Amino acid sequence: MATPAAAAPEGRQPRARVSVPSVPAAVVGRPRVDALLADLVAAHPLTLVVAPAGSGKTTALAAWAAGSTVPVAWLSVDRFDDDPARLHRALLEALRIAVGSVSALDGLATPALGQSLADEHVAALVDALGGLGTDLVLVLDDVHELGGKGSVGLVRAVVEDVPPNVRLVLASRSDPALPLRRLRGDGLLGELRQDALAFDRSEVAALAATEPTPLTDPDVDRLRELTAGWPVALRLTLTALRGAADHGAPPSSTLGAMERPDVPLADYLVEEVLRGLPDELASFVLRATCSETADAATATLVGGPDGPRMLEECRRRALFLTTVGDRDDDVVLRWHALFAAQCQAILRRTDPEAYRATHRTLAPARARPRTSRRPSRTRAPPRTAGSRRGS
Asked: InterPro entries given for it (predicted)?
């Protein structure tokens, strides 16, 4: 296929956007997650890393990439990449940084910023990936920033025609607009989700060991219970413990008195999670988390006729939900306890009447039997490392 004539270079990307991020020296190594990623990437043309804000997606990928024996091209996507020409340009630069000047990439062109990508530009990029002469992993971080048809279409085209020498890794806060069911069914998709990214007990212990005030084994267990291994929750809780220790309070007494809503996460949730949602969905989440579990019935109580649709959107966005079973042929989900407690604290502070009204509305649902007949399997995506659907 003829390669389009090269255009004059315009506006090079900031180096940080097109390079593997450096891993801070203070980050505790996680060989378990490194091994999961290595296995998934080796076995699948496409690997998804999907989890909410604060789950450590970028850190985990950067740590794995630092030890990769295969070149890794990295692009940190931002909202301006909804210009497909800009995304195309950034991809080329990330590839050139990873593999240097190679004939397959030299001379590839992209339209001027703001113009549409022609099919031949997309096809030439895919052909160039196959002609690199080396194996390569291409990581696109923060893919949830892409919403435009042109940019999403470019990613989809690369996914659909990725050559055998290239592995793709997409990190996102929610499932991207790709044919995931078909890719799963064909065995082409690996997935790393929130449960796998959460710190397990040994990793919490290793993180706690870096603190100036030692934590006992019961302290570590309590810390894991409070945070459910959510990386940002761990960091913020340890910061709170450090501050308490400066005033003479030992970790055991601070953790013993700490209730989930006391973990200093509310501001983070507002900024990084809830503010990134449509207003209607954010309002639904604040109210729906007043119930420990969620199903279509409780979603309808909280959100009206649109409640089940919004609950499904929460699942799609990986908003701290775990499938725990079913009731009356309806999937039953459980909210991450720390996330739910923080959302309730926010609702109680910002709209106390809505908080009280929601609890009154949910009272009938709480009176229902809370047993589930069996773990739900029909909606759990296969080939997922350490997670369940919606986690």
From this structure: AAA+_ATPase, P-loop_NTPase, WHD_MalT
Looking at residue 153, its amino acid is G
Question: End-to-end alpha-carbon separation of the chain, Å?
Answer: 43
Q: What is 207-220 written as a DSSP string?
A: HHTTSSS---HHHH
Tokens representing residue 32 in the block: 């378990």
| pLDDT score recorded for residue 367 | 60
Across 158-172, 323-337, 371-385, which has the greatest mean pLDDT? 158-172
Does pLDDT of 145 surpass 80? Answer: yes
Closest of 196, 269, 198, 233 to residue 48, by C-alpha = 196
Three-class secondary structure of residue 106 per DSSP:
coil
In a 10 Å sphere around its CB, with 0-12 CB exposed, 13-18 middle and 19+ buried, how is residue 56 labelled? buried
Task: Give the long-range contacts of residues 213-222, CB within 8 A, separation 24 or more.
Answer: 213/241, 213/242, 213/245, 213/250, 213/251, 215/241, 215/251, 216/251, 216/252, 218/252, 219/251, 219/252, 219/255, 222/255, 222/256
Count of Cβ atoms closer than 10 Å to residue 374 Cβ = 7
Judge contact between 276 and 53, C-beta under 8 A. yes
